[in-house]
Amino acid sequence: MPNILIPSLSQARKESFAHRGIHLVESITAPEFEQVIADYLAGHNVLHLATCSNNMPRSTTVEYFNNGLTVYVLSEGGGKLANLKENPMVSYTIADPYNPAEDFFGAAGLQVWGSASLFRKNDDPGKFDGIIKYSRYTDTVQQQGLGQKAAAVNFNVITVIPLKMVYLNYREGYRKATWEQGA
Length: 183
What we know:
Blueprint: E1 3-5, H1 11-19, H2 30-42, E2 46-53, E3 56-63, E4 65-67, E5 70-75, H3 79-86, E6 89-95, E7 108-120, H4 125-132, H5 138-143, H6 147-152, E8 156-169, E9 174-180
Antiparallel strand pairs: 1-9, 2-3, 2-6, 4-5, 5-8, 6-7, 7-8, 8-9
């Protein structure tokens, strides 16, 4: 069972936020929080994936799609794959554009620590077909006439299962809300 931690604030801090139109969530169930995160993931398509090998971190900007809290990345190759083969522990971030001059409390983002697995499309076509149905761009690829080219690529599929997530979105009421996979 996942654990949810919602940082508590003093009454004065709550009132200060409320004065600015921010009403922070003080309690939420794991399923409710997981839906908030799944919706946030579904509303974006780019993340920054951090991998590490030989004590050398690497961050790669990649397109992704999700099914609930599980994130999938299709990749033709690169250093991130070599890193994942050595160390499956990853982290990624997603953030909304932020302009503090317009809205100081407009920051929104997600930080995730997780475990990644890797397989090649042609090694398990059934598994690939089960995953690709969650992709948001399959129709677009077809409409742009790229369907056959995409189908010919033996993609590497990175699957990230979250172990811990921290979500910040003041305007939606979340201040460092933390979800952690239970034991």
